[in-house]
Amino acid sequence: QVQLVASGGRMVQAGGSLRLACAASERTSRMYTMGWFRHAPGQEREFVAAISWNGDSTYFADSLEGRFTISRDNAKNTVYLQMNRLKPEDTAVYSCAADLLVGPIGSDVATMSWDYWGQGTQVTVSS
What we know:
11 strands; 46% strand
């Protein structure tokens, strides 16, 4: 059982940057594909980004327009989501997920069923 703890969410002004972190409970989590999702009030949960187990491949939602990057530090069992040029529409609860998917990743990560989920961290972007 992998436990995931997301952190780093806070209120930020539009145009600003924020880095979220997702810490996993087990060293074996380095074998997992990791992803970020967000859930805004009144909307369905939305895929944001994912990174393969070794960091060699990433996949992002088209709507992000290149503003976000994802990275991982397997020595720290942590995945990061760097969010730049934030917009009010980025306001949401951001959650991380893990899946025992080894290998390059592609568009399937946006719709597949993930193995583990963590609690969310609130990001609020003020205009």
